[in-house]
Amino acid sequence: MRDPAGPVVLVEHEGPVAVVTLNRPERGNAINGALLVALRAALAELDDDAGVRAIVLTGAGGAFCTGMDLDDLDDLMSLPDLVPPAQSGPTGPWPPLMTPLVGAVNGAAVTGGLEVALACDVLIGSERARFADTHARVGIVPGWGLTVRLPLAVGIRAARAMSLTGGYVDAGAALRIGLLHEAVPTDELLPRAIRVARDIAENDPAALATYRAIYADLEAGLVGDGYRAEAAYMRRHLASSYRPGTARERRDEVIGRGRKEIRAT
Q1: Residue-number span of the structural domain to which 32 is assigned
Q2: Domain membership flag for residue 128
Q3: pLDDT (tens digit, 9 = 90+) per residue, 61-97?
Q4: CATH number of the domain residue 72 falls in
Q5: 94 neighbors 45 (Cβ within 8 angstroms)
């Protein structure tokens, strides 16, 4: 799918590894309707390709993904499939994949962008990686599994602090609390992510599929109801508390505060 600036999602192949790049650098790779549709379509197509054994996901320019495009948030909120129906199984920005996904976080991963990062199986960040959950600053609540996946990654106390303050976590802190698996120099990020994806791709496909099924079942057994609860709370919030235009009204304040905090970390 294209917008006036060109393709919003790029796909390249490195042997058995596909590299998917979010390509709205002028907007910090913020998610609008075109990007969300294109990303879901690209991942689904790659997931169906037997020649693709692992996928790397990254962002163009200086950001990984700065979340929902606040200028388009009201339109996004009206999409019928923005949030999967309430269910006990894992939810996320896209339907579950069979192909392992390595996130290469090259800059800010904020709110919806943090949910995109958390949906990856392995997360590698550059020294410029920054993470924040600013849903409350915008006046919305998550619906792509953040309140389940973030505590699983960093622990309930660290997750609660990130969500309630909206503060930024830099690459070093993200590595210490378990949000990142590795942190590398910026110019080494994509080569390292591709190398990790190749290591995954070289493993036995049947064993990988079994491992992923085991972990999915374990996750569903431990916290499956959390996904259903999050979806229900989000729908309730949209119905009772979300006011169209709120995000646009707060856009400059939210973005300005975020930029100051990124520079300070």
Answers
A1: 2-206+230-264
A2: yes
A3: 999 999 999 888 777 777 767 765 655 567 789 988 9
A4: 3.90.226.10
A5: no
